[in-house]
Amino acid sequence: MITAENLAKSFGSRVLWQDLHLTVGAGEMVALVGASGSGKTTLLNCLGLLDRPSGGRILFEGTDLTRLGPGGRRRFRRDRLGYLFQDYALIENATVRANLDVARRRGVRPDHARALERVGLAGREEERAHHLSGGEQQRVALARLMVKEPSLVLADEPTGALDGDNAAMVVDVLRQLSREGCAVVVATHNDGVRAACDRAFDVGSGREAERGDSAGWVVERAAERVGRAGRAEHANRR
Ligand SMILES: Nc1ncnc2c1ncn2[C@@H]1O[C@H](COP(=O)(O)OP(=O)(O)OP(=O)(O)O)[C@@H](O)[C@H]1O
C-alpha cells in the first residue's frame, strides 16, 4: 500500500533520518515509536504530503507521491488519506454534521447516523463541535474518518489527551478500519496503543521495534490496558 524508500529528512544541518525504509500494507496497523524528537510527526507529515522529505521516495500503490504536482497531492489527500490528530482538528464553530460533511466524497452519501452510533454519539448531529468535551471531539474525528473511508490513515498521538475509555474507543475504531483493509500508521508513546498494533517501527533507529510485551498482542487486552492506564492518569490529574 505505502512504502517509504530511502527516505531522508533534514532541517538545515540537522539530519533526522536517512535511508529509512518502511512499508505498511492494506489491513496493517503499525505504530511509529521512538524518543521525543526522533521525527515521528515529521514522518507522518511526509507520508501525508504535509511536508516534503529531503530525499527518497514514497510509493503509494506504485505512484511516487513525492513527484505529484499540486493537483495530484490535493486529490491524494482528499480521496485516499485520513488524518487523526491529538487536537482533533475539527471546525470548532460548525456542527457535528458539518464536520462529517467535510469528509464526504463526491457522489457518496455518507451514513452519519451509523458512524456517530459507532462512536457513541448517536443523535448529536446538530451540536456545535466546541460544545463537546475533548473525548467527544476526538470521537467526532473518528466518525469523520469512518465517513471518509480512506485507504490510508495517519494518526498522530491520537490518544494523547484522552481518558481511558475514549483512548480505547480510538484504538477500537482504528483496528476496525485496518480490518476493513485500510493501512493505519499511528505515532504513539502509549504502550497500550503500541500493543494494539501489528508491529512497531522505531523511527529513531529506523528498525522494527522489539515487541514490548511478551504477554501478547491481543487487541482486546491492549484496549483494556489503554483504558486502565488512561483512567489511572485521569484520576491522578484530578
Ligand atoms: N519545520 C521545522 N523546522 C525545524 N525543525 C523542525 C521542524 N519541524 C520539526 N522539527 C524538528 O524535528 C525534530 C522532530 O520533530 P517531530 O515533531 O517529528 O518529533 P516526534 O518524534 O514526533 O516528537 P514527539 O514524540 O515529542 O511528538 C524536532 O527536534 C523538531 O524540533
Give the SSE map.
Elements: E1 2-11, E2 14-24, E3 29-33, H1 40-47, E4 55-60, E5 63-64, H2 70-79, E6 81-85, H3 96-101, H4 112-118, H5 134-148, E7 152-156, H6 164-179, E8 183-187, H7 191-196, E9 199-202, E10 207-208, H8 219-237
Parallel strand pairs: 3-8, 3-9, 6-7, 7-8
Antiparallel strand pairs: 1-2, 1-4, 4-5, 9-10
Report on this structure.
This protein has 238 residues and is of the alpha/beta class. The chain has one domain: 3-Layer(aba) Sandwich (Rossmann fold), CATH 3.40.50. It is 37% helix and 23% strand. The strands form two sheets. Strands 6-7-8-3-9-10 form a six-stranded mixed sheet, with helices on both faces. α4 (112-118) packs across α5 and α6 packs antiparallel against α8 (219-237). The radius of gyration is 18 Å and the shape is globular. Adenosine-5'-triphosphate is lined by residues 11, 16, 34, 36-42, 187.
Labels describing this entry:
Rossmann fold; globular; six-stranded mixed beta sheet; binds adenosine-5'-triphosphate; 8 helices; single chain; 238 residues; alpha/beta
